[in-house]
Design goal:
0% helix; mainly beta; 16% strand
Length: 68
């Protein structure tokens, strides 16, 4: 299991640490890089992925089944 080639970026890599700037990371091997930087030492870390937000629950109408 893993990621496809388009998702092999530093934002999801085991060797990167996010920095104070939202668009930079500190890579153990390459130093300060952009979050979309790619290198051959990529190792996927599933804990760095942020899951998409769930869809809101559908709005339901109350139906009284006891009244005739």
């Amino acid at each position: 299991m893993g990621t496809d080639k388009s998702e092999r970026i530093c934002a999801y890599c085991e060797y990167s640490t996010p920095l104070f700037h939202e668009d930079t990371s500190l890579c153990r091997f390459c130093g300060v890089v952009a979050k979309d930087h790619r290198c051959r030492r990529f190792s996927y870390d599933p804990l760095k992925r942020v899951p998409p937000k769930a869809a809101p629950a559908p709005k339901l109408d109350f139906v009284d089944i006891d009244s005739d």
